[in-house]
User: Fold these one by one.
Assistant:
Number 1:
Amino acid sequence: MTETVVAIVAGLFLAAGFYLLLSRALLRMLIGVVLIGNGINLMILVAGRLRSTVPPILPTAAPPANPLPQALILTAIVIGFALFVALAVLATRAWGAFKADTSDDLRSTEPRVIVARPPLEY
Amino acid sequence: MAAQPIPLVAWLDVLPVLLCIAGAALLPLLNRRSALQAIVCGVILVAVLASDVALLAHVLADGPLAMTMGNWLPPFGISFVADAVGTGFALASAMVAFAVLVALQGGAEAVAKRAGIYPLLLLLLAGASGAALTGDLFNLYVWFEVMLAAAIGLVAFAGGPLQIEAAFKYGIINLVATTLLLAAIGLLYGLLGTLNMADIAMASGKADGAALTAVAALLVLALSIKAAAFPVNAWLPATYHAPPAAISALLGGIPTKIAVYALIRVVVMLLPTARETLGPVIYGVAILTALVGPLMALGETRLRRAIGFLLVGGIGIALIGIAQNHDLVLSGAISYAISSMLVIAGLYLVAGLIEQAAGAVDIGGMGGLYAANTPLSLLFGALVLSLAGIPPFLGFWPKLLLLQGLIEQADWPLTFTVLVNSLLTIVIGARLWSRIFWRPRAEPVAQARGYGGAVLLTGTIVLLGLAPGILLQTSLAAGRLLLAPAGYIAAVGLAP
């Protein structure tokens, strides 16, 4: 029961994240990346089965919780946050350089207007 | 099984990664003295190269070598497993990194004077070596993130508007790709209850086929984005030309090929049942990637963007090893990926020298470089011929293996793809060569400086092309082991 609910919540996170990622605004894309990361963390928690809350330290009568997904999620949170911050800095710098915060206006790596025509000789 | 102390030789497994990370931590302590940083970085890279060579010699003689962290016996601890394919990719990565370090010295690149590029170079190599040598799927994801973090820093390193924009695009698309990789690994864990590669290889045959195929499809999508396979390749030519040429060479040489390595490892060795279902999709992707890349390069006028499209075409050739289930084809694809790491990195370095001599990034502004820069034209010609697979250069042998296997299987569409890819590569190379070197030009031409790295890589390609035994031996051993991983599983300490 809980697993179904958490799985649906994870799915909603992912749907919202991908919707935001399809936007042209850099800030929305960044928030989309964060939502996707969190949705996937929830998904890993469910993948490890939500069977109990007993700490897996001492042998007890009840089955202990699975500690591995939590270790995986902790790692993923740290990495995801660090890269999100790096990308946020780049988005700020892009605003400084281009006064643009949409991907439509970031075209210097792929010029819209072909300056040089392909050479015809040779 | 009783725990035994880790044998001394098993420490070789972690040595390349350990040296890189220790170096990356040590270099910032040298506090902005970039000349000293370059020397220390060189010493570390030589040590990494030596340990990779020792590891490869050991692996070829005695089979896979495993080490499990803290001796928490598998499948519980995180294992590092060196086998022929992983060690081959780790060694080629270290060679590319060393050549780029040499190219940074004495060249005209302003970034070489800035401390900070050397720790990032070592971190990128740490990520690549870790991904190639790890025996744990979640650990593989972590190394991909290490590589991504270093790569974002390197793309943005020069700090101009072009680089910032490229780094943002590169960062977003690759972060989404690694996040999808994480999702697929999490789902695979939910399905099989293990993350150890040897354990997965044993368990995947018994799992629910439909669920496994779905997870494998997500894995293939994530790794294809990282490798820049056809429908998801647009980010690569848009970003790899933005940073200085030495950094382009590092990025063109290492991360995409490590993603190809991960695809081969996961699809061929870990999930062979899913490979049967996904085979037709990968077959189509391989053909399209191998043809669309060079066709795009044909119409491109910026030199380094054209090389980016050639890189994409090479990824398609490497994917043929997954598309066709045959040991020779797989070995050919592995040796192709390894050799093209060196060739593509060399091409980017030569492109940097050409841009420096011509004072332009678009071939429309180039021409007449032959008289003042004859060695440059020889280097460019040798690298293009090697990429196309013309003997006696290194690129010939992988294509020979590929074609031999494909003709044995009577797989004519893929045979045709390999041949057309080679033909298009030659046409593109000839067009670029005559345009850059032979077209008459009125204004004077500068003399390029900093040949070291490009000469080193081209020399290696020529030497290995004349003595291909080591590459062929490695890739044939790799192909056999990936298709029948009993030796790998036994080395980790699990009973098949």
Number 2:
Amino acid sequence: MIMFDSIEELLTHIQSVQLDVIELSGDSLLKMSAFMEENSLEIDENISTALQYQDIITQQLTATNEAIESMKKSMAVFTHAYKNDEGLAAESMVKLQEKLSDTLAEARDKKSRFSGKNAPEQADEEIEFF
Amino acid sequence: MSIVMVVDDSKTVRNYHSAILKTMGMEIVEAENGMEALEKSLGATIDLYLVDVNMPIMDGYSFIKDLRKQDNHKNVPVIMVTTQAKEEDKINAYKVGANLFETKPIKPDQLQAYIDILVKS
């Protein structure tokens, strides 16, 4: 179970890095938009895309952070079960594997869902007004 | 002067939308989530809403659903601009009462054109 503790620590570290990246990318674009406003610079298509990509980055990293959180919870459940009854280890391992597979499937779905127009399978782009 | 409420938890996105709207001569009201937007919409005259989907406290879908319950906001145009690209997200948006669902990144002139059409109609 020491291995799981190490994995848990590593995952926590990855989460921490991802949160820092979210904050830094947000700050950098806020500074850029403040500079543009102070200098009355117009938002062209490239700047517009850059500003919106930041939101996509945030959504993607937040989704992977949620997946990591889910992995950590599943691992904690397994560790708890194992520590209390080693006889259940095999069964618990199967359950852990299932949980991790579910987490992976959900994470992949979110990757596609939060990709904006960069999504691999682009939804119908036809404009519909109601 | 038309008044547009920008509802998004990202300050970067609010700034971006506000900058575009200012060039169109519009007045902007900002809200960080659906709940704050609902509170600000009560008794207010808003000509258009620009709404994100994923927000803490209250998401974009719940916000629009509740907004449409207010008599003076039943027909106010709502544009959802989001990172979400799935067809089911678009369907959900229209089900709760959005007028337009657009996926990021959206070009400034495209957004301006949509706003122009919806505010004038």
